[in-house]
Amino acid sequence: MSRMMRLAAFTLAFVIMGAIGVHAAEKKDEFRGVWIATVSNTNWPDKTASADSQKAAFSKLMDEAEAMNLNAVVVQIRPTADAFYKSQLNPWSEYLTGTQGKDPGYDPLAYMVQEAHKRGLEFHAWFNPFRVSMNENEKTWADNSVAVTHPDWVVDYGGQKWLDPGLPAVRKYVVDSIMEVVNNYDIDAIHFDDYFYPYPAGNRDFPDDWSYGAYGNGMDKADWRRANIDTFIKSVNQAIKSKKDYVKFGVSPLGIWRSKTVDPEGSSSTAAGSYDMLYADTRLWVQKDWVDYIAPQLYWALGYTPAPYENLLNFWADVVKDNPKVHLYIGEAAYRVGESGAWRDVSQLPRQMELGDSYPAVKGYIFYNIDSLIDNLSLREELTGNFYQTTAQIPDMPWLGGQDTAYAANVTD
What we know:
Shape: globular
CATH superfamily: Glycosidases
Number of domains: 1
CATH class: Alpha Beta
Radius of gyration: 21 Å
Strand content: 5-15%
Number of strands: 11
């Protein structure tokens, strides 16, 4: 079935269901991003490879992104309280060499930014703010690891080590870590994904009784946790803008804020959301202009009852519609294409994008992850053959300060 035939059938179905909007032609300005994960060496680098080999592998990823007419890469540069850059606050990441604190022989972030910009790609520096390690029983720590210098900041939870967001010193340390990158590198944005307080680990509560006792001031504990994250998000935005007002700040949260089953202002879904699970009031951040873009991870299929893609898309479009200073990009689950069930249908992700394109509020997409785009040839062909045949400029954010972006991709007329 051709794209136009598929679109006609799909649009008719949504008209019957009460949806509105007409699919737009390929846009000349839209965000086309892809995540590159480094935690556990998911996409890059090979920690056993030489510096030159790591560089070559990253350059190849940039070639692939350029060939697909993408215009931004979102690269994980601080996956676990460590660094893919020269840092005074965090040790070199173990994912570079296999040993935390070992110098990789080059500055990965400087190289990555250079290679992205050379191809007209924006570079969004992706931080995990509070995760310390993927394993409670960590290997030898570097001397300057926060687990060594401030063990009182660190708690074990869910088989991992985490910083306690309830400690003001922790939040300052993370903001300082972010600003070290903002001040020293030519990045285009700071980016967070969905991790704030960690996802619940069974029935065990996050172990922050001490910090709550010290700083809770009688607040309800859940409200206090949300206030900690709100304060942190606001602080990050203010710190960035105070130094480089052209650097963007974006968050890609869990795709559900709250469901109507617990809040009448929530989305038409039944699954738990970031407000209650992760203590992240993501809707508030949009309302307060604390972020420049929000990219909810809508990683569910169309019609999936607990979290229907179409309902969540409608919710987020409504959240941003009255706020011209926050762009909406949609996080797409490229990694799920080909799974059993609804994702076995090769048209699942293209139909999601067609629906997204019918909303003026949707200004682009970010795909998780780059290997899924490279390795799934049918998905790649669908993107480059039907959605991204030409290049596109990243949508302008006129409320930001001016900065020369001569490296930005040219639009093909």
